[in-house]
Amino acid sequence: MATQRTFSIIKPDATRRNLTGAINAKIEEAGLRIVGQKRIHMTKAQAEAFYAVHAERPFYNDLVSFMISGPVVVQVLEGENAVAAYRQVMGATNPADADEGTIRKAFAESIEANSVHGSDSDENAGIEINHFFTEDEIVG
Ligand code: IDP
Ligand code: MG
User: Fold this and answer.
1) Per-residue pLDDT averaged across 62-86, rounded?
2) Mean pLDDT for all residues in the chain
3) Long-range CB contacts (within 8 A, 24+) of 23-27
4) What is the mean pLDDT of residues 82-96?
5) Residues labelled catalytic
6) Is the CB of 61 under 6 A from ligand 1?
């Protein structure tokens, strides 16, 4: 598998607890390179659009409120098989199911406040990166 990019968000539960550096260390230890990064406070419209795929799920409104409850760090990660590699480092959505050594096992507070987002496909990675970054903000 060739070099690939994926999109990551360090979520408000993690920025609130000052865990950006600890999460970045796990990302880098996994062989992924942080080639774009910025701290933003998402607007409600941005969070709603980002999670539109979950609009019908019962947790959607809570999830949007959580994602705008504090700053987030949006990132572009690059590496071999980056989409799958980052999903592996993130761990399962529910931290109770996450493997030892994963970000969510180490840091997530709950199934909702689970510290990180990572793209689930190459196609979605491209869409999500374009949502938050211009090409000149990504430096490999
Ligand atoms: P993922 O982040 O592991 O890809 P998704 O199923 O895409 O998981 O869900 C997106 C986000 O929605 C999760 O990361 C989590 O913050 C939240 N979420 C997912 N399932 C639940 C739930 O059952 N209750 C509350 N929040 C949830
Ligand atoms: Mg997902």
Assistant:
1) 98
2) 98
3) 23/103, 23/107, 23/115, 23/116, 26/89, 26/103, 26/106, 27/75, 27/77, 27/86, 27/89, 27/103
4) 98
5) 117
6) no
- Report, as an integer, the average pLDDT of 69-92: 98
Q: Token pair 């987030």 is at which residue?
A: 72
Q: Is the pTM of this model over 0.90?
A: yes
Helix H or strand E segment including 21:
helix 20-29
Candidate of 72, 107, 111, 121 to mutate for ligand 1, largest count of ligand atoms within 8 Å of Cβ: 111
What's the one-letter identity of residue 119?
S
Q: Is the CB of residue 93 below 6 angstroms from any atom belonging to ligand 1?
A: yes
> For residue 55, which ligand has an atom nearest its CA?
1
pLDDT for position 2: 82
Average pLDDT value for residue range 116-137: 98
**109 ligand 1 Cβ < 6 A:** no
Does the beta carbon of 92 lie inside 6 Å of ligand 1? no
